[in-house]
C-alpha cells in the first residue's frame, strides 16, 4: 500500500504549447524532450490514511496544486476498482523551483508511478504517462528516461495521448544540457496561463501547431544519427517559434529579459568561433544550453560570463524508478 519513486524533469526540444482540451490536458501538437539527470523529485504514496494528505517540499499543498495531486490519486483509485481509501503523499525535489525547470513534471511522473505501485497495479509506462499528464502536461514525458515523444493523439477522451520513449538515456551519453539561471524570480505568467492566452489570442498559433508537429519526426531522425548541430538548430528555431506565438498574443507575452537575449547573442558569437553550443528556452528567462561533454565546462563559463547566478550541468536521465526507502 506504500511506494516511493524517483523521477527526473525533462526539457523539451520540440515544445508543447497549447491545449485542445483544458480539462484532460490534451495538446494541440506532439512534442519531444530529453530527460535530465541528476535533477530529481522523490515521491512516496501510501493508501490507507485517515484523509488525503499532500505534502510538497515540507509544506502542505493547497489550492490547485493539491487539486491536481488529488485528481491523479482519484484516477488511480478508479483504475484499482474503487476499493482504495484516502492517501498520504509526500514529495521532495532536489533542485530549486527557481531553476525555471518544471519540478512539476518530475513530481507528477513520480506520483503517477508511485501511486499505481502503491495501489498494487501492474507497472505500465503508457498508463502512468497518461496519469502524469492529468497533473501537468509535460509530466507525461518524465515517466521514461532518454528521449520521449508525447504524441498528441486523436481521441477526445485522451486515451491515445501519452509519451513514448524514442531512445533511452544510453543512446547519446555525450549530450549535455547546461541550465543557465539568469533570474531566480518566479515567472509572472505560468505556462498553463501563458499557453491558454496564446491559443486564444495569437494569430500565429495555427502556424505554430503545424510547424511543431512536422518538427517532431525531423528531431527523431536527427537523434537517430546523433547530429548535435542539426539538433541545436532545430531546438533553437522551435524555441524562437514558440516564443513568437506568445509575442504575437494580445496583450503580448514576453518571457525573455535583456540578459536572456544577451546570452543568446553571445552563443552566436561563440558558434562562429567554432564552439558547438545552442539554446532552448521554456516559458521563463533562463536558457538551457545544448552542447557536448567536451564543451560543458566552457558552456558553464559562458553562461556565468553572461550573468548566470547559478548553472546546473545535466546529462540524459533514466526512467522513473522505485526506491526502497520511503519519505
Ligand atoms: O506541462 P506544463 O503545463 O508545465 O507546460 C510546459 C510548457 C513548456 O515547458 C514551455 C514546454 C514543454 O514542452 O515542456
UniProtKB/TrEMBL annotation:
GO molecular function: ATP binding; diphosphomevalonate decarboxylase activity
Annotated ranges, domain Mvd1 C-terminal: 178-296
Keyword ATP-binding: yes
Diphosphomevalonate decarboxylase-like N-terminal domain segment(s): 7-163
GO biological process: isopentenyl diphosphate biosynthetic process, mevalonate pathway
GO cellular component: cytosol
Keywords assigned: ATP-binding, Lipid biosynthesis, Lipid metabolism, Lyase, Nucleotide-binding
EC number, as in UniProt: 4.1.1.33
Keyword check for Lyase: yes
Gene3D superfamilies: 3.30.230.10, GHMP kinase, C-terminal domain
Highest taxon, organism lineage: Bacteria
InterPro entries (UniProt xref): GHMP_kinase_C_sf, Mev_decarb, Mev_diP_decarb, MVD-like_N, Mvd1_C, Ribosomal_Su5_D2-typ_SF, Ribsml_uS5_D2-typ_fold_subgr
Family: Belongs to the diphosphomevalonate decarboxylase family.
NCBIfam families: mevDPdecarb
PANTHER family in the cross-refs: DIPHOSPHOMEVALONATE DECARBOXYLASE
Name of the featured protein: diphosphomevalonate decarboxylase
Source organism of the structure: Hyalangium minutum
